[in-house]
Design brief:
The protein is an alpha/beta fold and about 280 residues long. Helix content is about 55%, strand content about 10%. The chain has 2 domains: about 1-70, lambda repressor-like DNA-binding domains (434 Repressor (Amino-terminal Domain)); about 80-275, Endonuclease, Chain A (2-Layer Sandwich). It is elongated, with a radius of gyration of 21 Å.
Length: about 280
Amino acid sequence: MLLGFQLRQYRERGGFTSEAAGERIRASASKISRMELGRVGFKIRDIEDLLKMYGVTDRKVQKQFRELVAESNKPGWWKEYGDALHKWFIRYVGFEEAADQIRIYESQFVPGLLQTEEYAREIISGGVQTDEVTEQRIKARLTRQKHLEAGKRMWIILDEAAVRRPIGGKERGREIMRGQLRHLIHLCENFENVTLQIVPFEVGAHAAEAGSFTILRYSEFELSDIVYLEQLTDGEVMDKPATVEAYTKAMTRLSVSAATPDETLSMLKDMLKDLEEG
């Protein structure tokens, strides 16, 4: 999808129609449309022909495209969990995998990328006995967390409610939350690629009262940022400039309202102390 998005940008900048591009690679306009939407695979020869037509002569860009073609034709790790994950979420994971920066505001729960296995299990299973599908979803969530070790840049802002809300029953819930808080503290202290801030209750109404959202950035490609919103039964990926700008501004305002990373670390340690003493 990212490769197709770039191809569309180059085609439109060059003033070429889908019909003309299709003729260049001995195909139809609908084939070009499917390529640009990421719904079909790519052949290196077709990409090279289209880039030449679009006037893309930079060898570095041409090399990037060849590498992207090779990468896009490989099945993503998430395909292994395809039967357990919703189609709309699989689409999002592909975008997340390619992003070099992930920015998240979460109002209800600790985001999946930062969850411990116990916390994730409670969220996904709803506290009931798990089945095979649930186990697959838990494994997929933990696999996504490889971004942390890979050094992918993450800037995450949490409403205080997200780290205060108990997950699980009374006793087990305290154990789960202690483990989750310790994990967040560990991330803050040991992962330079992760910036974590908490918006304290005392801030009151703030820039993201409408709910949680994620912004994905692709600095290495000529792509706009992407906003992802997840609802109960589906998820929506948006790249309209006005929408992206609105959420980017909200994220910036939230960072000003939130406690600093150092203050956030102190808050987490105080919360953990309360749970351990309570």
